[in-house]
Amino acid sequence: MTDQMIRSARSIGNNIAEGYGRFHYQKNIQFCRQSRGSQYELIDHLIDAMDCGYIEEDECNRRKKYNIESIKMTNGYIAYLHRQKSSNKIEESEIHYQPNDFEQDYP
Q1: Which listed residue, of 23, 32, 35, 106, carries a Cα 20 to 30 Å from 46's Cα?
Q2: CA-CA distance, 103 to 60, in Å (whole number)?
């Protein structure tokens, strides 16, 4: 169950990133919907973990609350993408990164 929870949690951000990288509103929306599905999947795993006695009800509810907030943000992003798509824009603008954009000094 832990492995499933990790995979669904990672899938949330991965799908949002992949959709963003497509530079097309409809594809971005599609991947955001997949992300939202993973968010609901994670909530289901939390409930299963609680039912099996792996986590307490308080912990389950706290983590479900975080996931519900994340779902609300994803829904807001999807609504934004729909509005942008409807405003006669053909594609999202591509972002060009420079090689040093990802270089940071870590302690």
Answers
A1: 32
A2: 37
